[in-house]
Design a protein that fits this description.
Length: 160
């Protein structure tokens, strides 16, 4: 059974909710990663998205005894792949060597004697390809609706 996400806090690991982002970056990836962080720390958004992932990924797979990637890691890598419109080779490089991505994945450590977790190339392909375009549209719809609710609350607060 795939886990939604279970961050094993080890010495030197940065919790996903405490990840800092470059505020002056003009790259397209930091805002997307910030949005993923918001999804991770917001329970109602988190539950809605993970229920989609569980219904389409976990329920259709046989229970083979292998753990596989967490649903969170699959979602992050699929989002990064589609944001950058990249190939599998670059995605594997990013997943294993980009510190900001690794912090959002929940596997980054600052080398206090702990070995870094590495994602195998074929594991990335096998797992990330489980998220299709239709699933991303459903997730995007949930995120947009949640964002609209936040904007309405902000506007009401400013009018008061």
């Amino acid at each position: 059974m795939r886990q939604r996400f279970e961050q094993q806090l080890v010495l030197g690991a940065t919790p996903i909710g405490e990840t800092k982002f470059p505020l002056r970056s003009r790259d397209e990836l930091p805002p997307v990663l910030k949005a993923l962080q918001y999804v991770f720390i917001t329970p109602e958004l988190n539950n809605a998205i993970f229920s989609i992932l569980e219904n389409k990924i976990s329920n259709t797979k046989k229970k083979t005894g292998r753990k596989g990637m967490d649903l969170w890691q699959i979602l992050v890598l699929a989002t990064v792949r589609h944001t950058l419109n990249t190939n599998w080779d670059r995605l594997e490089h990013i997943a294993n060597h980009d510190n900001l991505i690794r912090k959002i994945l929940g596997v980054h450590t600052s080398n206090f004697g702990e070995d870094d977790y590495e994602f195998a190339y074929q594991t990335i392909i096998d797992n990330v390809s489980l998220i299709d375009e239709q699933m991303l549209f459903e997730i995007n719809e949930i995120v947009v609706k949640h964002g609209q609710v936040l904007l309405k609350k902000k506007r009401k607060k400013n009018l008061s």
